[in-house]
Design brief:
By secondary structure, this protein is an alpha+beta fold. It has twelve helices and 28 strands. The strands form ten sheets. Strands 16-25-21-23-18 form a five-stranded mixed β-sheet. A four-stranded antiparallel β-sheet has the order 5-13-10-11. A four-stranded mixed β-sheet has the order 19-17-24-20.
Length: 417
């Protein structure tokens, strides 16, 4: 465990710099002063091949201090040699984007030989002056990022000139030991975040597999039309301007697409009693379908309303009020690929797609014959959801802690000794 002590920025021993307030014994250097090389790309992207040994790092591959492998592209050996004539990226080098968006950084990955795509630059730290991982974190700090944005008028969509990156100001502690201690502490925070991200991804994959198995029709399940399960109602009476007018919870159709998954866990809109008087009050066990959408593939996404609270549904929501079915089970089942294909085939319109109760009522289902069996299946899946939600909350907290650590450690407010 690192020991540390905290200092007050308002006390003596601190100074104002271009990148903010730092300790008196820290200094600010241009990147060229602490790097052996600062290399620009060739201002065009090399030819792309289907697969190969030479990866092309483009701006989408650099996000939040990490090298992103999604949509990674490759080039051939002659192009690699041409695009690395100025310098072959090596372990410990830091890559930085000049735009789209500006100022994203990552370390050169260890598992690929890479060259720079368009709008990319490279820092090669002078190891006698700056620790590589400290340079990475410092480039992500509020002070350095804010200073870079000021040079470009304050917008991350701006385009940095080569000299903006070459002479970017970097605050440095006086010793490599302190730099490495800072980098180690932040690296530990990153390792926790990464482990939580991996665990969440694993749990989501397990849940997806469980859904495919548990919701797949089995011997003894019965065929039914969706309309046979209960009555359909319509949401009504909530305009966009009404959604923060009071403290009564409300569901809007757009939130079904963007905020909710399978069942309502929390609320994002709140209406006044006057607005509620013209809206549709929900009942525990209702299933809500988005009646409008942008594509047929997403039309009719649904969520179950399972908590005994007073809440309302806005317009463009179709409500199924089941009589003999588990709403939570329906929330999962009615979002499966088989049911979604039926909803898509019944959607009407092009620019805006609509689906109504008549179309939804004719959707073919194959269900467990008893509500108890439906409830048991839903309980397994909701327990998985609860576990994932708990891990996601831990991930949010871990990211917040890391942000706080960066602000403390990269400004010298907290010193590691």
């Amino acid at each position: 465990m690192q020991s540390f002590h905290q200092r007050n920025h308002s006390a003596s021993g601190y100074k104002q710099t271009e990148v903010g307030v730092i300790p008196e014994d820290w200094d600010v250097f241009a990147a060229t002063q602490v790097c052996e090389l600062v290399v620009d790309c060739k201002n065009r992207t090399p030819p792309v091949v289907d697969e190969g040994d030479y990866a092309v790092v483009r701006t989408p591959n650099v996000r939040n201090g990490k090298f992103i492998r999604d949509d990674l592209r490759f080039t051939d050996e002659p192009s690699f040699r041409e695009w690395t004539a100025r310098a072959v990226p090596q372990i410990g080098d830091v890559l930085i984007t000049r735009e789209a968006p500006l100022g994203e950084v990552c370390l050169v990955p260890s598992e690929f030989r890479v060259c720079l795509g368009q709008r990319m630059m490279l820092y090669r730290p002078d190891r006698t002056k700056v620790a590589s991982r400290y340079l990475l974190y410092s480039l992500m700090s509020v002070g350095v990022q804010s200073n870079l944005l000021r040079k470009l008028g304050g917008s991350t969509v701006g385009h940095a000139k080569v000299d903006d990156i070459r002479y970017l100001q970097i605050p440095l502690p006086p010793t490599l030991a302190e730099q490495r201690a800072i980098a180690e502490a932040l690296g530990d925070a990153d390792a926790l975040i990464e482990s939580l991200e991996q665990l969440i991804a694993k749990k989501r994959a397990v849940k997806q597999g469980a859904m495919q198995e548990l919701l797949r029709p089995k011997a003894g399940w019965v065929a039914a039309k969706l309309g046979s399960l209960g009555a359909f109602l319509k949401g009504s009476g909530v305009k966009k301007d009404d959604t923060q007018s009071g403290d009564i919870p409300c569901i809007r159709y757009g939130e079904i697409y963007t905020k909710h998954s399978d069942y309502i866990k929390t609320f994002y809109s709140w209406i006044s009693p006057a607005v509620a008087a013209t809206a549709r009050r929900l009942k525990v066990g209702d299933v809500l379908f988005a009646g409008s959408g942008e594509t047929k593939e997403e039309i009719g996404k649904c969520v179950a309303f399972v908590d005994d609270v007073i809440a309302y549904a806005g317009g463009d929501i179709v409500i199924l009020r089941p009589e003999k079915a588990c709403a939570l089970f329906l929330g999962y089942y009615l979002n499966t690929a088989t049911i979604n294909r039926q909803k898509a085939s019944r959607g009407q319109g092009d620019a805006v797609v609509h689906i109504g109760s008549a179309a939804l009522a004719n959707i073919d289902l194959t269900l467990p014959p008893s509500v108890d069996e439906q409830t048991a299946i839903a309980a397994v899946l909701s327990d998985m959801d609860a576990e994932i939600a708990e891990l996601e909350a831990k991930l949010v907290k871990a990211r917040q802690v890391k942000q706080g650590m960066m602000q403390e450690l990269l400004t010298g407010r907290v010193r590691l000794v």
